[in-house]
Amino acid sequence: MQSKESLTGFVLHRRPYQETSMLLDFFTLEYGRVSAVAKGVRGSAKSDRKSLLQPFQLLEFVLSGRSNLKNLGRLEAAKQPIPLKQNALYCGLYINEVLVRALPETEPVEGLFNQYSDTLHDLSNVTSQALPNLESTLRNFEFVLLQEMGYLPDFTCDAESSDPIDPGKYYFLDPQLGFCATHENMKNAILGKYLLGLANQSDFSEAKDQKELMRVAKQICRLSLIQIIGNKPIKAREFFVN
What we know:
Layout: E1 4-17, E2 21-28, E3 32-38, H1 48-52, E4 59-64, E5 70-77, H2 86-102, H3 110-125, H4 131-149, E6 170-174, E7 178-182, E8 190-191, H5 192-199, H6 210-229
Parallel strand pairs: 3-5
Antiparallel strand pairs: 1-2, 1-4, 2-3, 4-5, 6-7, 6-8
């Protein structure tokens, strides 16, 4: 990254820094996660810059400086904020928290950035705020995140034997290896037909056996994400209302 550069991105997280500044984590199209200091934005309750530095607002801005922690310069809105409310808002906060913990600094992930933007719009368009109506959007995003980070398991092959997944047999997920054959009574055993269903499924909301596929997808995402973000609980999960 150059010492001064114009970027496009979203605020993932912000927190107080020194007396009047903010420390920001941006998710940018050009460089993935980037940290920056916004100087003086806490010094005025009517600061236009402070009002722009909100989640789910696509921004155009300039960062400068030679260290990893840049200084925020020019800042303006690129589009209108994406309106999220109730559980959709909590889903957006959950995704932001996962990204802050998962993404290394200054590594471009353009495909994931585009998926993030699409996911926010999908969340804003969900007509019912009940969690089951939002979960397919979350799982789609998590699968893209795992794929981009190299942690999405192969749903078509037994990791130990290299045999194709058998729809009538059971498997468990070893997050470091992949799916391995097991017996029906093992905790968290997954029937092969659901693994194959996930392998062929690009949109969970249109899947057959949707309820069971969603349960399996959630189980797989939770186990796989631990490899990226660790075991520390995700705070945003505490807000969800069933």
